[in-house]
Design brief:
1 helix
Length: 225
């Protein structure tokens, strides 16, 4: 079966149902559980950038997990340094995701064209993240369906954001470049020793594979200069 696009990583219950007639009750199997594991779509990227909340210089790691998170999750990045051969050694982690939630945000109706950022969204950026969008800030619908919405927000002062929801709170992700959209997540990193690191992504108690999987030439890695 093809899993729903918005099914999030973690422990998932599954059962099989069968209806005898379209209008009548059917049969349902006992529920079982499986673990949906996230996967990093590509090698992470290490960057130096400016925190749009306060203007401070920070180091970040950009990852692109699948399935893509809907609203900012409780997530963590784990980095294991590779000191000799292919063996990981010391581990570092960060849970400082550059993202924030907007509990309620009335924004409809939606169009398929770029438009100035509406006042409620400007206010939400300021209240929930302390970010003042520029007068030239625009937003573009990437997908606007009944229960799944995706928008790109361009600040035209170096800031790109992804606004996403699925029948719940809105989530805003800090995207550091236009090419990071639509599924990138940026984690602020502590000061790390230079080296080669193997990268894992953890959410809902489940980690991405640390070794190569089908269609992946090698485990996700990043070089910290």
């Amino acid at each position: 079966m093809t899993l729903p696009e918005d099914l999030q990583p973690g422990l998932v219950r599954v059962s099989v149902t069968k209806s005898l007639k379209p209008e009548g009750p059917g049969f349902e199997s006992e529920p079982l559980a499986f673990v949906l594991q996230p996967v990093l779509n590509s090698d992470p990227q290490y960057r130096s950038t400016i925190d749009p909340r306060n203007g401070n210089a920070i180091k970040v790691l950009i990852v692109n997990p699948r399935p893509a998170p809907l609203t900012p999750p409780r997530a963590e990045i784990l980095l294991n340094s590779i000191v000799s051969g292919d063996e990981p050694s010391l581990a570092y982690s960060s849970s400082r995701l550059l993202a924030f939630r907007i509990p309620e945000l009335p924004l409809g109706p939606f169009s398929d064209r770029t438009a100035p950022v509406p006042a409620p969204l400007r206010a939400a950026f300021l209240v929930h993240a302390g970010i003042t969008l520029s007068d030239l800030a625009e937003w573009t619908p990437l997908r606007a369906e009944a229960d799944y919405r995706d928008f790109k927000i361009a600040d035209h002062e170096g800031g790109f954001y992804l606004l996403r929801t699925s029948s719940g709170p809105w989530g805003v992700y800090f995207c550091l470049a236009d090419g990071d959209l639509p599924g990138a997540m940026a984690f602020q990193l502590p000061d790390l020793p230079s080296g080669n690191y193997r990268v894992r992504y953890r959410t809902n108690g489940v980690e991405s594979p640390v070794y190569s999987s089908a269609g992946q030439p090698r485990p996700p890695r990043v070089i910290v200069p």
